[in-house]
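Hey, can you fold this one?
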Amino acid sequence: MSTMTYAQAACAALAEAMRADPAVVALGEDLGRGGVFGQYRGLAEEFGPQRVIDTPISEANIMGAAVGMALAGLRPVVEMRVIDFALCAIDEIVNQAAKNRFMFGGQGRVPLVARMPVGIWSASAAQHSQSLEAWFAHVPGLVVVTPATPQDNHGLLKAALASGDPVIYMEHKELWATEGEVDTAQPIPLGQASMLAEGGDLTIVTWSRGVAACRQALALSALAGIRAELIDLRTLWPWDRDAVLRSAAKTGRLLVVHEAVQVAGFGAEVVACAAQETGCRVRRLGAPRIPVGYSQVLENESRLAPEKIAAAVQALLAQPR
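Sure. Predicted structure:
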């Protein structure tokens, strides 16, 4: 076990994969200086410019090149800097990477990992603070991963690199400096949620930065005595339906919490599935359908505050099962 930051854990996982397999390469903007958040620090010095490739500022070009690399036998890790910029490469992701295996009868595979830092980035406003995980979960052919801790960022990146399919890998923009214990030998399979707390009063499902916010909410005096099951999905596609449905059937109440806009967010898929299969009471908590503001007051309207989560918990518990 080692103490690592979220960024260091991902860097360690990528370095391990690059040492083990010369087909693993990384490409994107600013990789030569270690990445915007330090998530590639030291890799250019160890592996050289042929495998840690600084690219021009053209997301469509970067992603298109990576798809071609993957079809030719490499295993590229594509750095989009932030998910907001990945929208410039949407055709290469949605119409090329996601569909190739299906359109050509499995003759081609696109084993790439597209790293798209997601979520609100303090004082960075509307074009740098989006949470678009539901967009990619909607697209057949894509795997969608949302690590919340250094341990998960290490284990899930290794699993993503081994997947063989195109993976949309969404690290949160404000988690890079968070620290935690990391067991580099611990495998974390895709599609397996993590049960963070057990209880019988209600089930809370979340992911990414929502995990820390939910933990803070459950520690508030307003929720003293409430025993909640807290589940971190970790991957949104495939998502761990069985774990969520078991818990929802047990508690009879389900709250899904995410930083993304609530309207048409992935939480709607989770609550609809749970309500249909278990008949439990359901509630969602996400951001209002507004662009993230630059000013602190406006930005806070889109943030997941523990007090907002506590209020949603109390509202759900007030409903009879």
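The chain has a mean pLDDT of 97. Let me know if you want another pass with a different chain boundary.
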